[in-house]
Amino acid sequence: MSRRIPLLSIALVGVLCAACAAPPSSAAPSMRVLVRFQTDVIGDDAGLVRALERETGAAVAYETSVAADRHVYRLACPAGDDGCARSLARIGAMPGVAAVTPDVLRSHR
Amino acid sequence: MKFSIWLWVGLSLPLLGMNVAAAAVDDAATRVIVKFRAEASALRQASAADQASLLGRRAGLNLRALSGPAPDMRVFLAEGAGADDTLRLLAAQPEVEYALPDRMRYIRAMPNDAMFPGQWYLRAAQPAAINMEAAWDIGRGDNGTVVAVIDTGVRPDHPDLAGKLVAGYDFISNAALAADGDGRDADPSDPGDYIDAAARANSALVAVCGSGALFWDQPSSWHGTRVAGLIAAATDNGVGVAGAGWNLRVMPLRALGKCGGFDSDILAAMRWAAGLEVPGLPLNPTPARVINLSLGAPGTCTSAYTDTIPELTARGVLVVASAGNANGAVESPANCPGVLAVGGLRNVGTKVGYSSFGPEIGVSAPAGNCVTTGIGEPCLFSLDTTTNLGSTTPGLNGYTDQFTQANYGTSFSAPLVAATAGLMFDRNAGLTPAQVINLIKANARAFPVEAGLPTCPSTNVNSQCNCTTTTCGAGMLDARAALAAVTPSGNGGNGGGGGGGGGGAFDAGGLLGLFGLLGIAWLAGRRRD
Questions:
Q1: Which residue range is the domain that position A15 belongs to?
Q2: A107 within a domain of the structure (yes/no)
Q3: Domain B2-103+500-528 adopts which CATH fold?
Q4: Angle (CA) B3 B4 B7, round 5°
């Protein structure tokens, strides 16, 4: 019994993580965010992406990088987080994160 | 041998001293053109030396007669008073109709580009024109300083741009937005940013742009090609337009796609332009000194920009951005600290209706205005530049004009400032971005006041107003004045001529003196032998 629970847990986590690592659903509200970390990190590191997902409850996909400490992610924010404001706030509060801003679309003038 | 050296040194010192003294005398003397009154027949008929003697005695000046450009005129070299007093003292003499400074004039650098006569904004006849034609007498970017254009990319095969580009990059990370089949890549060519039914049917593009941005069909803008041409179209090549920066070079960085571009791609391009590291990309081999951002969106400046701009400034890179076309608050990133924000002027120097305005603007420049509004009437003050004539994918390369391809927007005022800044860095690479901003502001011309027009921020029905320094920046860009205020660096080589002033004259004298000394030393050696 004591052996089954951990195995079940691992399996469950695996299933859940498979779901959250999937590309953001097109149905969910999604947005690109630019995260500045306090140190240089590997932006597309799977552990880092999972950590962002755990914190926000959003599906997170790495998009691109701006600098070694600045990376871009697409969040498919969970239901009830219209505009992803709550997800952004949660990322901003994560240890190791210096700042998070929406990745705004700009156009020529 | 010893004798030769001592003779050489002994002769050198007094001669060098004479050379310096001569330069100092010339600096203190004033060249004056004096016109004699018609009734001063005795003085007019006197010899040049007598004219100098008589007038000098009466005015209390030491005059030396030089040329006589007309029977009733004489040029004097005057000593004994400052320039203003010299003119006043001579003008006060009863025989003198007027006394004027005999100023140095310089050859105007008039490029032979076919469309240059219509490039009103580079010249001086219109109040808002930036006086660039005169600036070219001082510097033409002969060191090839690089201005980065972060925009839609360029048409690299445009004959007025092909030889003016340094290697760029395509920073658009989203393939749907990029519309060139992939994300970031080394090709900054502009494939066209048109919107059509196929774009509306592209779910990946709709997810990025939103359906509203794709609602109407839109032809390709070739925006980056337009901006690049304003900065550095090939100049004096007999073809098309002249670029404001003459010999400056453009680094095309593509960050705007079908419906715009993300901050993250713009910021990555800004970093790369400055020679900073961007993960996954090679370092830029030819970093820019100026970055032109003819782009924006409403809103405050985000920390993503306030983090990045100081990094660029620390590397000596100036960011120039257009204020926006919303007749409202200055858009972002133009409103970010450290950015030189540029507002838009009509040809007469008042705020053009569409230009955004506010205290963040550093300087204003022509942005293009039409004056005429009837169907089929020309857009009289369009800013002619390079473009492509394809309505969707690239077609023939061409130029904007007053008719079907009119060109206006604060997008096009910013490049005029970016080119001016590029020429300033080219003249003195040791300048900091803050110094360039200060010099551009300090040498801007005062805004005119048009009777009957409200003072900004109040506007008339066309959203026009008389600019103030709190709404449109320090004044109207004056490229000549800004460039003249730059002390050339020792390794200058900007080749424009005329900018060296007294320093240049002294150097020439020193060289002549040195040649003279070498000649004397050679003679001394000959005599000893």
A1: 4-102
A2: no
A3: Alpha-Beta Plaits (3.30.70)
A4: 85
